[in-house]
UniProtKB/TrEMBL annotation:
GO terms for biological process: regulation of DNA-templated transcription. The modification 4-aspartylphosphate is found at residue 53. Keywords: DNA-binding, Phosphoprotein, Transcription, Transcription regulation, Two-component regulatory system. This is Proteobacterial dedicated sortase system response regulator. InterPro entries: CheY-like_superfamily (IPR011006), OmpR/PhoB-type_DNA-bd (IPR001867), Response_regulator (IPR022305), Sig_transdc_resp-reg_receiver (IPR001789), WalR-like (IPR039420), WH-like_DNA-bd_sf (IPR036388). The keyword Nucleus does not apply. GO terms for cellular component: cytosol; protein-DNA complex. NCBIfam families: marine_sort_RR (TIGR03787). Residues 133-229 bind DNA. Residues 133-229 form the OmpR/PhoB-type domain. Residues 4-120 form the Response regulatory domain. One of its GO terms (molecular function) is transcription cis-regulatory region binding. SUPFAM superfamilies: CheY-like.
Length: 229
């Protein structure tokens, strides 16, 4: 069955344009003009991926609120912000709320399709890894790719798909430095350095909420990151 993408965008023409383009890629697409309409539609079941604008009608930050509500229901749901608000502050805010990507509306439809496909590949890759290894253990870390569950010192740490994949990629090879380019290559995605850095910072904060002394993700200045053996 084709994957379902929800587009939450208050401008009807823009919503229809994206919906038509993604439908041509073989996705089932549903469009919603605002937060309340989307939440009503998602009451019984979530789509496979959600694209959200930050400003939704009279709600200046309705997209941020929607992202927060969706993350409370699912850590694994892929979420992309697609907005004209391209300030660094807004991008960081979106990523802190748990979005997997934050894109400007000047991005081409080809690039948008590539980002969406990359998120789905990431999910499939994690599930594929589960066939080879049902669970990965590295000291205090326990990670299950099949169920997208992760624990540190026995306590659950809720990660988004992107965050989970990054920890998985680093923890599989403790001590090995992964440059930002290598992280992107392994995930078969293309994002900027700022996005990778924001994700790493958010991951650390989530672990530190469980263990304030957490330092297993090391920064190798000028190179990248590694899981401390």
């Amino acid at each position: 069955m084709p994957r379902e993408i929800a587009i939450v965008e208050d401008e009807a023409s823009i919503r229809a344009n994206y919906a038509e383009a993604l439908a041509r890629q073989g996705y089932r697409v549903r469009g919603y003009p605002g937060r309340s309409e989307a939440l009503a539609a998602f009451r019984d079941a979530l789509p496979d991926l959600v694209i959200i604008d930050v400003g939704l009608g009279d709600e200046h930050e309705g997209g941020f609120d929607l992202c927060r509500e969706l993350r409370a229901r699912s850590t694994a749901l892929p979420i992309i912000f697609l907005t004209a608000r391209d300030s660094d502050l807004d991008a960081v805010s979106g990523l802190r709320l748990g979005a997997d990507d934050y894109l400007g509306k000047d991005i081409s439809l080809v690039q948008l399709s590539a980002r969406i496909a990359a998120l789905f590949r990431r999910l499939d890759a994690l599930r594929g890894a589960a066939v080879e290894e049902h669970a990965l253990e590295r000291g205090a870390l326990w990670l299950d790719p099949e169920r997208l569950e992760l624990r540190w010192q026995g306590e659950p740490v809720a990660l988004t798909v992107t965050e989970f994949w990054m920890v998985h990629a680093l923890a599989r090879r403790p001590g090995h430095v992964r440059t930002r380019d290598q992280l992107m290559d392994e995930a078969r995605i293309v994002v900027d350095d700022h996005t990778i850095t924001s994700h790493i910072k958010r991951i650390r904060r989530k672990f530190q909420a469980v263990d304030p002394a957490f330092d297993a993700i090391g920064t190798v200045h000028g190179l990248g990151y590694r899981w401390q053996a």
